[in-house]
Amino acid sequence: MDGYELIPTTPDVDDYLRLRIAAGLSAKTREQAEIGLPNSWYGVTVLLDGSAVGMGRVIGDGGTAFQIVDIALEPAHHGKGLGKAIMAALMARLKAEAPEGAYVSLIADGDAKHLYAKYGFEPVMPASIGMAMLIGRD
Length: 138
Fold this sequence. Notes:
Elements: E1 4-7, H1 13-22, H2 30-36, E2 42-48, E3 51-60, E4 65-73, H3 82-97, E5 103-106, H4 112-117
Parallel strand pairs: 4-5
Antiparallel strand pairs: 1-2, 2-3, 3-4
């Protein structure tokens, strides 16, 4: 991680919103970020010259269930081992502090499944299937 610094904190709201878009993730509102980020169980931010260029978070109840979310990296910084560094930091924290038997899940988009497999994640199908929905206001 030559020149990069990985710090154990969630990004600020502006960096979070920017990094999600830069990484091709769905947009979130400022209100969502202001509520959600302080409720993270753990997060890391990758800095280059003091600017956030990557992030990852773990959310959950702290006991039974955790989810890895918001793995995002500016495209200009791909291929430098930063995604692996983010995942390694999140996994180290989970292994050190999550109770034995806790369930850790994530949604793997595209080729990211290969990165996550290196950390022990595997598909849950056919026994289970991931499901999702977005809350809408009518």
